[in-house]
């Protein structure tokens, strides 16, 4: 397989930011509780504008599953119905919380005049597939069915997510298409984690932030007993062969992300099957660059691309 000199190819601003971060060597399951606590502590320091109203709802989960918590973000003083973007947070399927998206929607709800919904799906390994994706679907279905109450235009609902959340968004697009209950307008996939097989060149690069060891453990936690067996497309969307009828897509990934190959291939196959797809590749950028190095020029460019694309597709 092709190898590259990652350090030599890093964007200079990104390289400087990475020097201030602990090296990524891959997590262990024993480390997860501490890592989750650290993530929550970081969220406590986030400052919000006060211009977006946030309301939590406990909605019915899948049959036999617990309720699912979603957070609805709405620009203050805006009357409905508004377009809605339904969001899955990242974290390798093993970390993260819907509260991570407060800052995102504090900006997007005001900028785009939309409702943002973040879902607090259950995490692996405590809850492997299909629990997390069924949580995401349950929340999406509830938002669609209660659109009038929420001030949402049911005909203008899109989905999105980053990393594992991008993988869940891609899976949710497939699930919504196949169940036929919730029409989706678009899917925004930010460096989505979609292929458990790890057979591409980039999946084996020793990249910053999310190296192969972390990816292997994330997939092992999420798939559980399915590892090495018959993995459904709703667990690993890259395994899907029929991508027809899916909503238009924007896929964003850095050139030094282990997900580069699977994301580029997914964008190509969506295009080949008639799905309008925009693909943006950022040289010198690793996984999570827009969130972990937000002040860099390349991160600002990526966020602008996402916001401009959403501004085009949301009106319908």
Topology:
Elements: H1 6-9, H2 12-18, H3 32-43, E1 52-59, E2 68-75, E3 82-88, H4 102-112, E4 115-120, H5 131-145, H6 147-150, E5 152-162, H7 164-179, E6 186-190, H8 212-223, E7 248-256, H9 260-272, E8 277-286, H10 289-292, H11 297-313
Note down, in words, how this protein is organized.
This protein is an alpha/beta fold. The chain has a single domain, classed as Rossmann fold, CATH 3.40.50.1820. The chain contains 11 helices and 8 strands. The protein has an 8-stranded mixed β-sheet, sandwiched between helices. β7, α9 and β8 form a beta-alpha-beta unit.
Quickly list its features.
eight-stranded mixed sheet, 316 residues, Rossmann fold, single chain, alpha/beta, 20% strand, 11 helices
Give the H and E element order.
Answer: HHHEEEHEHHEHEHEHEHH
Termini separation comes to 43 Å
CATH C-level label: Alpha Beta
The CATH superfamily title: Alpha/Beta hydrolase fold, catalytic domain
Radius of gyration: 18 Å
Helix fraction, binned, reads: 25-40%
CATH topology: Rossmann fold
**Major beta-sheet overview:** 8 strands, mixed
Averaged pLDDT: 95
Biggest sheet strand order reads 1-2-4-3-5-6-7-8
Kindly name the structural category.
alpha/beta
Tell me the fraction of residues in β-strands, as a range.
Answer: 15-25%
Count of DSSP strands? 8
Query: How many domains comprise the coordinates?
Result: 1
Q: What is the count of helical runs?
A: 11
In short:
This protein has 316 residues and is an alpha/beta fold. The chain has eleven helices and eight strands. It has one domain: Rossmann fold (3-Layer(aba) Sandwich).
């Amino acid at each position: 397989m092709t190898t590259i000199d990652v350090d030599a190819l890093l964007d200079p601003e990104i390289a400087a930011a990475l020097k201030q971060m602990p090296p990524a060597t891959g997590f262990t399951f024993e480390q997860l509780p501490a890592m989750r606590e650290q993530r929550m502590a970081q969220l406590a320091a986030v400052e919000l504008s006060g211009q977006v109203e946030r309301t939590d709802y406990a909605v019915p989960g899948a049959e036999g599953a617990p309720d699912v918590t979603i957070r609805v973000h709405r620009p203050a003083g805006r009357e409905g119905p508004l377009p809605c973007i339904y969001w899955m947070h990242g974290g390798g399927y093993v970390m993260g919380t819907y509260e991570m998206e407060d800052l995102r929607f504090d900006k997007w709800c005001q900028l785009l005049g939309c409702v943002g919904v973040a879902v607090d799906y259950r995490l692996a390994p405590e809850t492997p597939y299909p629990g997390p994706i069924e949580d995401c679907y349950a929340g999406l279905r509830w938002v669609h069915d209660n659109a009038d109450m929420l001030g949402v235009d049911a005909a203008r609902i899109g989905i999105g997510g980053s990393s594992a959340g991008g993988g869940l968004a891609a899976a949710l697009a497939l699930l919504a298409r196949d169940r036929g209950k919730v029409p989706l307008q678009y899917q925004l996939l930010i460096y989505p984690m979609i292929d458990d097989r790890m057979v591409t060149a980039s999946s084996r690069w020793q990249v910053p932030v999310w190296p192969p060891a972390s990816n292997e453990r994330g997939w092992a936690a999420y798939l559980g007993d399915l590892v090495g067996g018959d993995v459904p497309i709703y667990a690993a969307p890259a395994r899907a062969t029929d991508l027809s009828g899916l909503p238009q897509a924007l896929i964003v990934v850095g050139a030094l992300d282990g997900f580069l190959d699977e994301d580029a291939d997914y964008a190509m196959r969506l295009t080949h099957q008639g799905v309008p797809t925009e693909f943006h590749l950022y040289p010198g950028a690793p996984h999570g660059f827009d969130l972990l190095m937000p002040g860099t020029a390349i991160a600002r460019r990526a966020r602008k691309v996402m916001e401009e694309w959403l501004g085009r597709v949301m009106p319908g």
